[in-house]
Design brief:
The chain has about 400 residues and is mainly alpha-helical. About 65% of the residues lie in helices and about 5% in strands. A two-stranded antiparallel ribbon has the order 1-2. It starts with a helix and ends with a helix. Bound molecules: heme C (HEC). Heme C (HEC) binds next to helix 13 and helix 15.
Length: about 400
């Protein structure tokens, strides 16, 4: 009991911390992107300054100026922006370990997708995240790195591959979370291994009286552009865990790459706007179309298999009156869900129903019908890892009950 309470609060505390650092990281990164793109040139600026911006915030006025490479005399107090990123990654990794490695049976593995052991699943998680960075970093450093657009296209194909890979090895939930985690790892590693070290070389060159090579700035800029386009997809993937239609539908592998495109189309609007004040409205049309495709893909369901296999079952189900059908749904839920989603769950390790979601009595089920439908009939989010062996026909019955009888009544 003490262990359960402790881990539950530890998870909450780490999640709280993680979100705070992520807000700080993304906030400062958006701030600097907009600042950098919005700098104004002005003839009266002192030598060595390439642009300035006036800002007003919190009752004060600020005049920010950007130096071409660096000032000739470095100030003693230089503020670096790196801990926002590092602490987001560290807390995110800790959270991944608590939730997905600690609860690998339920969260990471889906035996119907790939029947692997906890050890295998955790190893694949760690190795893939590490390898992801090695592959990405080497692609950027190779001659491809000189052609930004080709590099971006190849990286997009890499992300399509990862979407396929993770959705064919992990549960949908874990697959989407890993797409977020690997992308966020690339972003933090860009800061840790490339952007900050390059900046340090420039600083030490200046201290030693050498002229810094501008290539360090160009490389840092390339990585920071990647980070810019990857930010929104990462947040989508992290939040997607609450939306089974996103991560647990049959075509989740096709939805994931589209999420990366959404990130590009939305950022492109703002980047262009900050740089030129031009409003590219077509990017919103594109964003809307991609989003609509995602919505449509999320509802795809192969029903044919059920009808062929369970012809007699279907005949019987179609002939049921609403009352009998509700009884049947109640039986299915009692057999497949209530060990966890009860007032006093029987499942080891749960003091309360997960997320406080209770479907014990018929009234509970009626009240929560939509959630039951979304998590176990339209998508396969529940039962996690199909741990209670829910059958296809049972999912179909819930779907039929909700769409035909329940919705009508
Ligand atoms: C092994 C225990 C277990 C079983 C069995 C189980 N669930 Fe869950 N359920 C969970 C856990 C754990 C979560 C929380 C997932 C998360 O972290 O978002 C959850 C979350 C949910 C949610 C989301 C609640 C919310 O507010 O976000 C719904 C809906 C749900 N389950 C429905 C079902 C249905 C329907 C079944 C049976 C078909 C079922 N569950 C079977 C463990 C279980």
């Amino acid at each position: 009991m003490i262990v359960i309470v402790f881990t539950e609060w530890l998870e909450f505390a780490v999640r709280w911390f993680h979100i705070i650092t992520a807000i700080a990281w993304i906030g400062s990164s958006f701030y600097f992107i907009a600042l950098d793109l919005g700098l104004k040139k002005n003839k009266n600026l002192p030598h060595g300054i390439i642009g300035e911006e006036w800002q007003v915030h919190g009752g004060g006025f600020y005049n920010i100026q950007k130096y071409n490479v660096a000032p000739s005399n470095l100030p003693k107090d230089l503020i670096w922006f790196k801990w926002e990123s590092y602490s987001t990654w560290l807390s995110g990794f800790f959270l991944l370990a608590i939730v997905y490695y600690g609860g690998a049976d339920i969260y990471l593995i889906d035996r119907e997708t790939a029947d692997i052991s906890n050890f295998q699943a955790i190893s694949i998680s760690l190795v893939s995240i590490f390898l992801g960075w090695i592959i990405y970093n080497n692609a950027c450093k190779s001659p491809l790195g000189d052609h930004n657009n080709i590099l971006m296209l190849i990286l997009f194909f890499f992300l399509i591959f990862l979407s396929w890979f993770y959705t064919s090895i992990f549960s949908g939930r874990a697959a989407f979370l890993h797409l977020g985690a690997i992308t966020a790892t690339l972003m933090t590693a860009n800061v840790f291994f490339i952007i900050i070290p390059n900046q340090k070389i420039v600083v030490s060159d200046l201290k030693a009286g050498r002229t810094p090579d501008p290539k360090y700035g160009i490389i840092a800029k390339q990585r920071s552009t990647h980070n810019n386009y990857l930010t929104l997809p990462v947040i989508f993937f992290m939040l997607s865990n609450h939306y089974p239609l996103a991560f647990a539908s049959e075509l989740n592998w096709a939805i994931a790459p589209l999420v990366f495109l959404l990130g590009v189309s939305i950022r492109h609007y703002f980047n262009t706007y900050h740089a030129t004040k031009k409003r590219l409205y077509w990017t919103w049309i594109l964003t809307f179309v991609i989003f609509a495709i995602i919505v449509i893909l999320s509802t795809y369901k192969k029903n044919n298999e059920i009808s062929a296999e369970n012809f007699n079952d279907l005949e019987r189900i179609y002939s049921l009156e609403i009352q009998a059908l509700s009884n049947e749904v109640h039986d299915i839920i009692s057999a497949r869900c209530t060990m966890c989603h009860a007032r006093e769950p029987l499942w080891d390790g749960y003091l309360n129903a997960p997320k406080g979601f209770i479907i014990e009595s018929k009234e509970d089920i009626t009240k929560n019908a939509k959630m039951v439908y979304l998590h176990s009939a339209v998508s396969r989010a529940m039962p996690p890892n199909n741990i209670s062996y829910m059958e296809e026909i049972e999912r179909f019955i819930i779907r039929y009950w909700y769409e035909n009888k329940y919705a009508d009544g």
